[in-house]
Structure formats: C-alpha cells, structure tokens
Amino acid sequence: MGLPAVVEKKLSLFLEQFCPDPAVIRSALERTSLRTELDFLPGEPICKRGDRVQGCWLVIDGQVEVRADDQIVAFRGPGELFGEQGLVHVLSGKDGTRTADVKAIGPVKLLCIDASFQERLNDHEKVVWTLTLASVINHKLEQATDMRSELRSLVAQHELLLRRFSDGDALGLVKMATRGERPAIQNRRAIILFSDIARFSVWSASKSPSEVAAHLRDIAAIQINAVCDSGGQIDKLMGDGAMAYWFVDSGDREKCEPAAVLACVLKVSSDCRAYFEKHGLPLGLRIGLHAGEVSFGDFGAEGRIAVTLLGAAVNTAARYEQAKSPDLGEIRISPTLRDLMVRSGANPDTFRGPTKVEVKHGVEIDVYSI
Question: Could you please report the per-residue DSSP string of 33-52?
Fold first, then answer.
C-alpha cells in the first residue's frame, strides 16, 4: 500500500538529501511496511527522556521542539528526521534510551519508522541505512557547529557593544548587572576630571546642528582617546563636556596615576587648541581636576544600568572646572591633586597659583592652574 502524496514527497526529499542509495531504503520500507503515519496535537509529547527507543520520526508537516535539561536544543520541521541517534545506539549494540524530550508545536504529522525496521534489513541494506543515519547525524553536528560559531560571534558582538559604552572597572559592573547581579557600592579614591568647551553656547547658536555635531564628535574623540590611552575611564559625555576618572586607591596607583593624568590633560589641552585654530573656532577648553574619596557602583534602577562615581569629591572637581578668574589657565587643579602630582614627579613650577576663587554658594577654593 503506497504512501499519501504529501508523505511520499517529504520521504523522497529526505532520502535524496541523506541516503546514498534512496531506492534501496525505499524498497526496504515497502517490503517491511514498518512505517506508520502519526498525528499529534499541539503540546502533545512525542517521546520523553529515558524512554526506550521505539523508532525514529520524519516530520511531514508542522514542527517539534527538542528539549534537554529543561532547555530548548532544537526545532525540527518538515523533511527533518529526529530520534535517529537512538537507532544508531541500537545498531552498535548499546542500550537505546531517549536523551531528550520532544513535543509537538502546533498540529504535527510524522512518519514513524519502527526500530525493528533495521533488524529486517539484509547486509547491503543495513550498510545503506547506517550511512543514512550517519549522514543525518553529521548534518546536525554541522548545524550545531554553525550555531556555536554564531553564538561565539554574538558574544563577541555583545562584548564589543558593551565596550563602546563602558570600560575598565565600570565594564565589569555592567556585565554583572546584565546577569541580574547587584554588586555592592565600592568606596574608592579617585582623580576626577571635568571638561567643558568655553564660549560654546554663543558660538553654536548661529551654527547648523550638523556642523555643531561634527565638531563636538571630533573634540570628544580627542578627550576620549587621551583618557583611555592614559589608563583612565570615561564616565560620561554631557553636551559639550566630559567626565573621566582614574582610581588612585593603592600605593602603586598613587605613585603612577597622577603623572599619567597630568600628561593626559596637557595633551588634551594642546590637541584641542590645535583643533580650534585649524578650524577657526573661537573656542577654548576648561578642565577641572580633583582627587578624593568617592562611591563607585551601579546607581541605576532594575531596568537601567548607571555605573558612575558619586560624592563630594566629584562635586568639588566640577567646581574647579567652573572656576572663573582671569588668572587661571585652561587646566585647573586642586591643591590635593597638585601635591599628588608633585610627589609622582611633576615639577612644582608647572603649576601657577594658588589663586583663590569664589565658586557656587559663595564657597572659596584655592586653584592651581596650567
């Protein structure tokens, strides 16, 4: 008795793809009649892990879900065989039991080939059948390899994406947050930098958004690259300003980082000045720096990661950037940080001042500048 046209078509496609001699297996199936058409309802189990091997199935219509260890392993659709590994175990003399759960996703029609089919084959048919099952398994291994390669690529892309938004210690906390972890807030000591473009608001008022954006991007790149090259971390960009930091909470860091920060801000100042001159921009750059105790961690909400520094030292660093006096240079430095820089090898004559400047709320601060 022949198979329905739709079943015959899927069987033919399957044999042409995986069987080295389709006529041999087709003849054996017709001779033994050990194949049955089965229909499954949505969500109905087809086999369960630990079941004895009763056969394998060719999907004629619909889709099945394969799960192992409570995770989806694969989906199989029309023209695909599943359950073949159990038959290979039986052929090799092993105890055949199912290693995964399979259930119908929506209505499913299957062609079931009974396990006893391979016991009724002559030697030549058995070789062809074994090669067919091996071809199916090899195809699935190739699929799994491709999936693993794609997964590795996705992981790499995910890593690169995270690195575009954070780096260093902040990147570690972001990764923990993406895993649903909530690390404790850290008490750290840091050098904090704030920068801002002087006269930017007046200049940009008469310029097109595209021109303003192009210059902002270039100026931000100068600062970002210099900070990262010096071992610092960018906290955020704020319009025409930036915030960055370097941790100095170990003896080695306190010895080395202040000198690195000084070299960084001197380069940023020089490169930005050259950029403004090259493009004929009536702009300047202000940089404020301070060192002190900060709280470092993720201060965001459940659905929003916000890794940053908080504390009085951060606010004070911003005040140094905002300080206004004709006696100040572009780079403004707190006495605390100036002392650290001198101890790390900076020439004391590098710094002018201190200059006493009144800042927000009538507070006076001593400012060294370059």
Answer: --EEEEEE-TT-EEE-TTPB
